[in-house]
Amino acid sequence: MSPRTVRREAHAKINAFLRVLGAREDGYHDLESLVVPISLADVVTVREADALTVDVRGASELTGAVPAGGLNLALVAALALGDACPDAGGARIVVDKRIPVAAGLGGGSADAAATLLALNELWGCGVDEGTLAELGERLGSDVPAMLVEGPVLMSGRGELVAPAPMAPLWWVLASFDFGVRSPDAYRWWDEAGGGTGPDPVPLLDAAAAGDAEALGPLLFNDLEAVVCARHPEIAEARDRLLELGALGAVMSGSGSSVVGLARDEVHARAIAEGLPGALVVSGPPA
Ligand code: C5P
User: Fold this and answer.
1) How far apart are CA 259 and CA 105, in angstroms?
2) Tens of pLDDT, residues 27-56
3) CB count, 10 Å around CB of 227?
4) Is 211 a catalytic residue?
């Protein structure tokens, strides 16, 4: 009998807004964010095996130069689930990378979340959602949000997640060949005296209604100014997206990626033509 296999897409995310509320005693920051999964995804495949191994495949710029806490999060996730699951065995985990690394797109967190879900099924652990979320929270602040299928309003340091209904929209994604480390971005925010963006209710209403025209000008990210001050390319890409007709443009997470919001798919493709290397994505996936 051939070994059983479970395959899951690990969708990247963008932050339609990211509001930093303040630094905490534990080194993290309290925040609020609308986390939107996008069509760009890694694929995580797990297969029964004697030992636990992780194999990362993809273009060398995606699999090489892995930042600490990046891709190996899939392995850490497997070990964490193994501790919580008496039926855990070995597994061969293969991650096919498409999501740029350290790009503010939650690639490592998405891989970890998909690994938890896939191994829970492969090993027949029956670990419930709440316990998976607790395991996820220990792996990284974005993992609980990535365990939920669909957009979420995230708060706390990331562990509090509530589904946020939203119609699919079209975005143009500009990524760079450099990443930004989250601890750096949050430290720069502290050093700058930490500005906090507006009440997100109008933005959440626009997102829920799928009203791209209303949503575009409301997109914001409190980490954007301090990251752009160190990486002017990010601000240039944001401004270029707006010049090309995006309804709004914002840095995702702690950077380095930027997304521009389009009216529809045709509009997104027209904008992307003006920005070499840009990708057209739907979010949430259409
Ligand atoms: O949780 P995660 O490992 O993704 O966080 C990486 C770093 O980003 C943290 O060590 C912290 O410096 C910063 N961070 C933060 N507040 C958050 C999430 C992350 O300060 N809510």
Assistant:
1) 10
2) 999 999 999 999 999 999 999 999 999 999
3) 22
4) no
Phi, psi of 180 (to 5 degrees): -125, 130
Pocket test for ligand 1, best of 28, 146, 161, 189 (most atoms within 8 A of CB): 28
CA–CA separation, 54 and 281 (whole Å)? 28
Q: How far is CA 259 from CA 243, 244, 253, in A?
A: 13, 13, 11
Q: Are 67 and 179 in contact (CB under 8 A)?
A: yes
Find residue 19's DSSP bridge partners: 32
pLDDT category, 65, cuts 50, 70, 90? low
Tell me if 103 sits within 8 A of 134, measured CB to CB.
no
SS3 assignment for 63-116: HCCCCCCCCCHHHHHHHHHHHHCCCCCEEEEEEECCCCCCCCCCHHHHHHHHHH
Q: What is the pTM of this model?
A: 0.96
- What token pair was written down for 279? 């990708």
The verdict on the CB of residue 15 being under 6 Å from ligand 1 is no
Is residue 142 part of the annotated active site? The answer reads yes
The answer, yes or no, to whether any atom of ligand 1 lies below 6 A from the CB of 33, is: no
The model's confidence at residue 198, banded by pLDDT at 50, 70 and 90, is very high
**Residue tagged 């209403």 (tokens):** 205
Closest ligand 1 atom, residue 109 Cα: 4
Q: Which two tokens stand for residue 120?
A: 């829970």
Please work out whether the CB of residue 56 comes within 6 Å of at least one atom of ligand 1. no
CB count within 10 Å of CB 45 equals 18
Largest CA distance in the chain: 61
Ligand 1 in reach of 183 Cβ (< 6 A): yes
